[in-house]
Structures are given as C-alpha cells and as structure tokens.
Amino acid sequence: MTSRQTRTRDRSDRGIPEATVARLPVYLRALHSLQDRGVATVSSEELAVAAGVNSAKLRKDLSHLGSYGTRGVGYEVEYLVYQISRELGLTQDWVVAIIGVGNLGRALAGYGGFASRGFRVAGLLDADDEIVGEEISGLTVEHIDRLEDIIGERGVSIAVIATPAGAAQGVCDRVVASGVTSVLNFAPVVLSVPEGVDVRKVDLSIELQILAFHEQRKAGGPDEFDALDGAAPKAAAPPGPPPGATPTQYVEAVEA
Amino acid sequence: MTSRQTRTRDRSDRGIPEATVARLPVYLRALHSLQDRGVATVSSEELAVAAGVNSAKLRKDLSHLGSYGTRGVGYEVEYLVYQISRELGLTQDWVVAIIGVGNLGRALAGYGGFASRGFRVAGLLDADDEIVGEEISGLTVEHIDRLEDIIGERGVSIAVIATPAGAAQGVCDRVVASGVTSVLNFAPVVLSVPEGVDVRKVDLSIELQILAFHEQRKAGGPDEFDALDGAAPKAAAPPGPPPGATPTQYVEAVEA
DNA sequence: AATTGTGAAGATCTTCACAGCC
DNA sequence: GGCTGTGAAGATCTTCACAATT
Fold first, then answer.
1. Any strand C atom closer than 7 Å to B210 CB
2. What GO molecular functions are on record for this protein (chains A, B) (predicted)?
3. Residue B238, pLDDT above cutoff 70
4. Domains of chain A: which residue ranges?
5. What is the CATH number of domain B18-88?
6. In the 3-class helix/strand/coil scheme, how is chain A assigned residue by residue?
7. For residue B117, what pLDDT band results from cuts at 50, 70 and 90?
8. Inter-chain contact A192–B21, Cβ cutoff 8 Å?
C-alpha cells in the first residue's frame, strides 16, 4: 500500500504533539476572553479552568512552544496570545473558499469566527444555477465551473467542503488538483486524498451518535442481555441473520 | 476539587474504549453504504479502507463489541449494522431540541443525517421574537421561555446549543436543570456542567486553526527564528511586551 | 486459504509530583 | 511562597504479527 510512516509531521518538526495543537486554539480563545476583561497575567491553574483542562496538561502543552511563563508569577496574557497565534500560523491571513452553499454553507459564510482569526473567505461556490449569483455575507456565489480559476487567482489555501455527500469526493479531487493541501470537510463521507494533504472532518451526526452511546449507558447499557456470564462476551447468537426483530429500517438517507 | 476518577465510564462499563466509540459511527456509515450497494459480507480490510482506518484497528474495535465475524470469511454486513446500532443506542429514538435558530440552527434543523439515524428533532427554540413562529423544516420555532416545558413534555434527552457564545452557558444551565444530560455545543465557549452531564463540542474555527497550523508547517514553520541553536528552544525574547510588530489586532469578535 | 481475534510491543497522551526559579 | 517546567509513572491508543478458526 502507499507510504504512511512519518505521520506525526513532515521533517523539521519542532515536535508539537498533535493533541497539543488541537488544544492551542482553545487556550487562545480563553486568553482573548481574559484580554477583553483586562487581565494582564494569568496562572496555569486559572487558564486551565477557563479552557476546561487540567493545569499540568496546560503547562506541558505550553512548554512545547517555549518557556513563556514566569515562575512564581504566571503567564503574560498578551505575550502568550502572540506566541500561540504565531505558532498556529494566525499572524498571517489564510484564504478560504467554501464549496457548497446550502444551509450549512450559508451558516459558514456568515460565521464571524472566521474573519476574526485571520481566515478570509474569498469565494462561495455552488453547482446550482438558482444559487449562483446570490449575494451572501457580502460575497456573490459563483459557479463551481470556475473552481480552478478562483483557487489559482485568489490564492485559496484552505477549501471548506459543504456539498452533499455525493459531490464531495469529486470536489475534493478538483481542489487538490488545483494545489490546495488543507481541506475541512462537512460532507458525511470519508475523503481520500494523496499523501501530504490534510483533511479534517466535522460530522454532526457522528457527534450525536457518540452522545447517544453515553446517554444509553447512563440508562443502563444496551437493553437486552448485558452481563450474562462472567466469561468473555461470547456471541449470544451465531453470526446468522440478526436475532429477534428485524434490525429496523436503517435507510441510508441522502443527508445534508 | 470535585471528583474526577472513573472517567472512562460509569460502573458496569463493558469497557468500550472512548476512541472506539468515536469510530463506530464511521463504520456504521460505511456499512450502510455497502448495504445500499447490495454487499452482504465484508472483510475487515475492505471495511477498513471504506472507513479510512487501519484494518487491525477496525478488528480490535469490533472485538470490543463481541465476536461478530467469521474467520476465513469476514463480517455479515446486516448483522454488524445491527450490532453496532444497538451498541450505539440507535435502535431507539432520541428526542432532540435545537436551541438557537440562526444560520447554523437552521442548517441543523434541515440536516437529513439526524432523522435517518434515530434522532428526532422535537423543538426549535429561539429568544428572538422575529424568529419565533417561523416554520422551518416542518417545525414552528418556539420561544425559549418555554424551554423547560418543552423538554419535560416532549421527553427531550439531547440538547443542541447553537446560540451566540454569550447565551450558551445560560441555556446550558437551564437544559441541565431540566434533566438533560447530553449536550452538543456549537457555541464557541467552554461550557461548565455538573458531573454526569456529557458535553460534546463542535467548533468550526478551531478546526480551521488546526489546518492553518499544518499548512504553515508545510510552508516551513513559523516564519521567524526557527532553529537557532541546537539547545533547548530558550526564549529568544524575554516575557516582556511582544517582540517586533504589535501582535496584530486579535479582537475577540462576537462570532456566530 | 483466507480472515478473524488478540497478546504483546510500541507510540502517544495524561497526570503526578517536585526540582528549579522568581 | 508561589508557580512554572519537566522527568517519570501511568493510562490509553495503535500497530504488529500470528495463533485460532472456518
């Protein structure tokens, strides 16, 4: 199969663990909020509470960026904001295109959190002629036929895919062919991309399913046979057709 | 501080690792897709490819549910769909309320992925009188004053918070007080909830920031001094005011 | 012959607990 | 005295590789 190794990150890799990277934006938000309240200095314990993590974890995370705190005192808020922003690459602007202007695409186009953090939406694209031409949040929706031109001309470096599931892989192939190496995918499909392209996925339905799992557990595990024997959870029914009632409908709806 | 331990899951805990739970919905989607194509049996390798994971991981994940495969053959698709669905609690219906009917709330209300997987949206609530009364996806938006009644009367067990950041914690407190113990939060804040309440968070801006980090790395690390000395990355500037240019604007916009 | 299920090794992530510094 | 930065221990997650089973 294709190469995999060296996943943690390219070369050079000053080695910030992925788990840490995923939390830096949370710290950043908490810091901004402190800044707004005029707080100049913060301890790891305070910031950890604001960010919803353990303070040892916070300190270790920050230690990967450098030694930016002062023992006995804490961290200077403004300075830390700057360092984290720089590490995340937010001191420069990133040009984003949103592909698929349905309900979700519109919501994304109007989302204030983009602009405020150095993400500039430079294109809204859709395949539907009804939608093309419409103005949304100050941008005119363009036809997806112009995808390659738009990406090239405007220097788009992040593509947000908010199309129906069926269209997502095709769109993804096109943006990747146009040189985009970062994709945020809202369509409920697993996108396959070449080595070197980063895909992050946001899936509303998956989040709900995870909640349902825990909710069910609170109520007392999967209804039927739970702990019959103390031994290994051997099959209570052989892998023939499902036991008891038919497994409900389970239609794969087109979703989104 | 408050108790923490025993986080992995309540008591009884037939012990499905959290990482596995998070992947089960992905497998389920891949299986549905196979089902649609009329596939009756699948090997771990095939399913793994469809789900975008390593096949050993897939087998280990499934082994936590039981022994539902047949050596030398593979897994029966329909049976596996049933077992995963049951484990995730999708053989019953979950009643969902969406609070905050802005762009995002509308997108969520119209999202097909909910209904098709046993999630029934039974309420759309908003504080804005302009919006209350509007009909969206077959539901009439109700006033948030009725939150407690609606949750109680309709048996809502999962609350989706899609309000502006400032309103989220207040709404969260109210849904929790009404007995909801599962919350899906789209507002860009850390919600604090009592022990026993599950919160999952979806944050668009955070995903983009993570992408930006990797994108920047591909281009060659944070612009300035990168690897100066071979020693520890000691502070290149003391924790005084930020070095060089002012750290841009960094306004904490109201977002959403 | 093919494929599952799983011990064991390895990698990554979290937490503890305390030395080191202000 | 207070708080950071971090080695070391512990927990969790991933991957390998192969015995078990059909």
1. no
2. DNA binding; DNA-binding transcription factor activity
3. no
4. 18-88, 94-204
5. 1.10.10.10
6. CCCCCCCCCCCCCCCCCHHHHHHHHHHHHHHHHHHHCCCCEECHHHHHHHHCCCHHHHHHHHHCCCCCEECCCEEEHHHHHHHHHHHHCCCCCEEEEEECCCHHHHHHHCCHHHHCCCEEEEEEEECCCCCCCCEECCEEEEEHHHHHHHHHHHCCCEEEECCCHHHHHHHHHHHHHCCCCEEEECCCCCCCCCCCCEEEECCHHHHHHHHHHHHHHHHCCCCCCCCCCCCCCCCCCCCCCCCCCCCCCCCCCCCC
7. confident
8. no
